[in-house]
Amino acid sequence: MPRTTDGDGTPVPRRLLAAATRLFAERGYDRTSVQEIVEAAGVTKGALYHYFGSKDDLLHEVYARVLRVQQERLDSFADADAPVEERLRGAAADVVVTTIDNLDDASIFFRSMHHLSPEKNKQVRAERRRYHERFRALIEEGQEAGVFSKKTPADLVVDYHFGSVHHLSTWYRPDGPLTQQEVADHLADLLLRALRP
C-alpha cells in the first residue's frame, strides 16, 4: 500500500483521484490546475507526478477505474451459468447502476475526453471497445441461439443501449422520481424488448 502524507490512512493515489474528481466535476478539467489538485489532496506536486505523471493521466484514471469495475462485472455476467437472456439483462442493468454510482466520473470523462493526449485517447477507445465487444457477444450468442431477433444488427443494439448509458449524467438525479435500480431495470427491459423475436 502506498504511503500517505498524513495519518488518515488514505493512500496518496486515492486522495489525488478524489480531489481531481471533485475539482474536475466542479470547475471542469481545463479550468483545474495541478496546483489546485495537490492542494486539495494535501500532497506535493512531486507526489502527483510520482503516481500519475500528468493531469492527463489523472483524467484517464478517473474513467479507467470505473471501466475496470464494469469490465470485471460484465465478464462475471457473461461467464455465468445462466440463460443468455438473463445474463444480458443483468449486464445491461449493471452498467446503468455502476455508471450512476460513478456519475461524476462518467460526466467528467464525456465532457473532457477530447483533452486526453492522442495516446491516452487511443488507449481509452481500446478499453471501451473491449467492453462493447464483450457485451455485443452476448447479444450475438442469443441471436445465434434464436433467443433474440436478428432483425436489428447487434452493433446497433449495443450503440442504442450505451447511448442511453452515456447520457445518464445529463439527466439522472439521485433525488429524482426513479431510483438507480428502477432506471437500470427500465433500460435493461427496453434493450430486451428491442431484441424480442
UniProtKB/TrEMBL annotation:
Which keywords describe this protein according to UniProt?
DNA-binding, Repressor, Transcription, Transcription regulation
A Pfam family recorded for this sequence:
TetR_N
Record-annotated HTH tetR-type domain positions: 10-70
The UniProt annotation gives the DNA-binding region as 33-52
Q: Does the keyword Transcription regulation apply?
A: yes
Q: Which GO annotations describe the biological process of this protein?
A: negative regulation of DNA-templated transcription
Q: What is this protein called?
A: TetR family transcriptional regulator
Question: Which species does this protein come from?
Answer: Streptomyces dioscori
Q: Which GO terms describe its molecular function?
A: DNA-binding transcription factor activity; transcription cis-regulatory region binding
Recorded hits in InterPro entries, A to Z, give: DNA-bd_HTH_TetR-type_CS, Homeodomain-like_sf, HTH-type_TetR-like_transc_reg, HTH_TetR, KstR2_TetR_C, Tet_transcr_reg_TetR-rel_C_sf
